[in-house]
Amino acid sequence: MTNKRCKVLGYNIDLLSFKEAVSFVLNKTKINEGLHVITMNPEIMAFADKNEEYKEIIKSSELVLPESSGIKAELRFRGIKQEQIPGIDFSKELLNQF
Fold it and tell me: What is the CB neighbour count within 10 angstroms for residue 84?
């Protein structure tokens, strides 16, 4: 599955619903394929802008979810309807699925 993505301030954001994002991770684990998930917010972007190694980790991540209302607002400004996916809720749902 290839995710639809959009760049926000130079970082890819995956445009998935909460349910699609959970399914994406669960499908990867079913085939014993590891992945790196980022729940992106402005603080992470600001830190990555100052830390090249961290920035590369983000850019190579298989899933980058829009955690903050600021990212959601930027996407909405571009005409993209995207739900906000808080990391704590996403993690809780994944744990409930296992």
Answer: 18
Instruction: Give the Cα separation of 13 and 75 in Å (integer).
Output: 10
Residue-by-residue DSSP string for 33-82: ----EEEE-HHHHHHHHH-HHHHHHHHT-SEEEE-SHHHHHHHHHTT---
Query: pTM of the predicted model, to two decimals?
Result: 0.88
| Token duo for residue 36 | 């790196």
Let me know: does 64 contact 12? Beta carbons within 8 Å: yes
CA-to-CA distance for 45 and 35, rounded, in angstroms? 20
Flag whether pLDDT at 47 surpasses 70.
yes
Work out whether strand 63-66 and strand 37-40 pair parallel, antiparallel, or are unpaired.
parallel
